[in-house]
């Protein structure tokens, strides 16, 4: 809803976005109180919590003489552990009263771990700051006013005074005409466009460095984390702002994945030799499911996906912020731009309005028949069965698994498709299989079968691939049970 918040900010005098910063929030977490919260809210994870934090944890620091010193610490949450973000989120939400059925906060609160953004009229924001400050201090967390930022598009002296009364050192973002809220730039259109372009150039430079200096599979997975952070921009901001970003992201992802992963596999090396990570059959499987043989890596064109998601978000906007939605369409140029994207996304204009006011979830089902036919042609298989790993499993889990001696090393076929899975989509949205293609896994058959829906459901190599997927799922479940029961 970032675009809706932007419109509210631009049109309401005194409307403010304020980001709060806590001093070493993870380190100041009260373990004793967190133990009580875990026991009350999620008792199933109590043993996992006690395994990590029942005893003091060891921290390593390096002094000015480069001597490594081990210190036992009995306070705080250790960052880097798979469960740490969850435990801290549970702790902070509980102490701030965000888990209550009813809340006494006046404005909108957006929170991710230790990042908190308050949005609303300045007077309400100021009142909520006092609530956050008091509750946080009672739990050992302290604000850093000097690192707080607020953005107020419409200059309003009384509102500025209200914010300064509770956070005298807070810095008002004026020169940049905008502020980044949990990774999404919100502000003047030109400023948002510049922020997106700068970020895209930075990422492109990083990816190019990887291609020229060599890359490991772990480094590639790290680079792919850039992708989900940018996908959010494509789906919450107007496509007119993000079309260039979509094109660059398409190119960067495809080039990086194909060159850095597939081109580095040395198929002629003997088994066990450096560079011999996958067999030819595994490589063909990976190419089939990631479309590397056509230069892509499984993503539908983001330039095409952007308008669809944008229209869906606009329908949600019509439901939750109808006045903002109406103000958007009062602007003739903006309304025309929106209608163009609606048509491009395969919707009818009336359908979007009806779905937005009645049942937004039906939008996808109400797409035009031509758009649905095109989608079915690209996805000639019910790809839910090819969904490789649960979307709840993050990058850190796979990296941890790959580093564990006790676990069998995941094959690079699984790894390649796991990268796609972790981008936040189901594979049924990502895989672009055309029914006119021939199956590369059945090249020995005459005639070579085409990639029809029926063949994909019966192909033996694909069934073996699905067995590999199931094996990965079992490893993930086994790994989680080890954490909980150790």
From TrEMBL:
InterPro entries: DNA/RNA_pol_sf, Ribosomal_uS5, RT_dom. One of its GO terms (biological process) is translation. Transmembrane segments: none annotated. PROSITE patterns: RT_POL (PS50878). This is Reverse transcriptase domain-containing protein. It comes from Monosiga brevicollis. Pfam families: RVT_1 (PF00078). It comes from the Eukaryota. One of its GO terms (molecular function) is RNA binding. PANTHER family: RIBOSOMAL S SUBUNIT, SMALL RIBOSOMAL SUBUNIT PROTEIN US5C. One of its GO terms (cellular component) is mitochondrial small ribosomal subunit. Residues 1-186 form the Reverse transcriptase domain.
